[in-house]
Design brief:
single chain; 361 residues; alpha+beta; Beta-Lactamase; 3 domains; five-stranded antiparallel beta sheet; 11 helices; 14 strands; disordered C terminus
């Protein structure tokens, strides 16, 4: 007998400790008995939020709970409860607005478990309700700040676009309706997709610290260079990625033009050096070639060799002259997919020798 009394005392003490613990919780905790349609357990937070005053007393009932829920949200709450009671469902969760006595509105997240008997019939509902008003306000402030950002911003969650700001819409050319719910990689050019995916993941994991560049195709089919960074955030209570998306096409164009100018300058310097170093020896070769001209009665074979030499020396003079008149950088295809300088296209020398392009003999 003493042991039984002792066990009951211990159970009662544990129950009291649990009630005190539940009452100290900032969450509203409840247990609803389905058969009796009454709350078999609730903590002080639940009572303060969902009880209503009737005849001078605070009353807690399914009716009072329903009246506390915003009228526009009541139908979806009842539907979520009904779905969770269907066979094989273990519980549910939903967000809704709660009306307070002073007229203010809170946003609540209700998550519950359905307790079933051995036959699988629902017996009770046990739940925790958390006030997420501050989080919703923070989300709105956050969205407002990135919506007004001067660079493109978007939020990705479960590999889909969940938020895009006006600048992102302007850069891509797509509407918000076309973008929300789509794969962000769909606008990235195929050649860059795997690289972008890897860079974004590395940045989200803090393995990469620097922005990455890639090309997209906007709605009009234009190619644009993008500079992007990614960071991990919580959005609407779930993990997400926030990406800053900047159009650097103009800067990229200027960079390519600068590189082209640097190439041209290098070619001009090289061409000037080649022309200078080869021109003087060439003049000697030309002079000597003239002095080696065969007599009229020389054998025909020697005359042909002399003429071949003279023609190729003149051709060499023409090429050197074109080197000295290079004004732009142009290339042409060569063997094995390589490219070489297109001297003809790069040179402005055409009619320096009476339209023939050849130096005088």
């Amino acid at each position: 007998m003493p042991s039984i009394i002792q066990d009951h005392t211990m159970i009662r003490q544990l129950s009291e400790d649990f009630i005190q613990l539940a009452d100290r919780s900032q969450d509203a905790i409840y247990q609803f008995d389905i058969e009796s349609q009454t709350f078999s357990f609730f903590n002080s937070q639940f009572f303060s939020l969902y009880a209503i005053e009737e005849h001078g007393k605070n009353i807690l009932s399914p009716k009072s709970v329903l009246l506390r829920i915003h009228p526009d949200d009541r139908e979806k709450v009842e539907h979520a409860r009904a779905v969770s009671l269907q066979p094989d469902n273990r519980g549910g969760d939903i967000e809704y607005r709660l009306l307070k006595n002073d007229g203010s509105i809170l946003v609540m997240h209700d998550r519950w478990t359905v307790v079933r008997d051995h036959a699988g019939q629902p017996v009770s509902i046990e739940g925790f309700i958390r006030d997420i008003t501050w989080r919703k306000q923070a989300d709105k402030e956050f969205e407002r700040s990135i919506r007004n950002a001067l660079i493109g911003c978007y939020i990705i969650q479960n590999a889909k676009l969940r938020f895009v700001n006006p600048e992102f819409i302007r850069i891509t050319g797509y509407s918000e309706e076309e973008l929300i719910g789509s794969d962000p990689l769909s606008i990235v050019q195929q050649a860059y997709r795997e690289e972008v995916r890897a860079n974004a993941i590395d940045m989200l994991k803090s393995k990469r610290l620097f922005p990455y560049e890639f090309c997209i195709t906007d709605k009009k089919g234009h190619t644009k260079w993008i500079l992007e960074t990614s960071t991990s955030i919580q959005y609407k209570g779930k993990r997400a990625g926030l990406c800053y998306f900047m159009d650097i096409s103009q800067g990229k164009k200027a960079e390519l033009e600068r590189l082209a100018k640097e190439k041209l300058l290098s070619i001009l310097e090289l061409a000037g050096a080649v022309g200078h170093e080869l021109n003087n020896p060439l003049q000697v070769v030309l002079t000597c070639t003239e002095k080696l001209a065969p007599d009229a009665d020389e054998p025909t074979r020697q005359s042909r060799l002399y003429q071949l030499l003279k023609n190729n020396v003149q051709r060499l003079a023409t090429i050197i002259h074109k080197f000295q008149n290079i004004t732009q950088y142009a290339t042409k295809e060569y063997v094995n997919g390589k490219k070489i300088l297109d001297i003809e296209a790069s040179s402005s020398s055409k009619d320096d020798y009476g339209g023939s392009g050849e130096p005088p003999s």
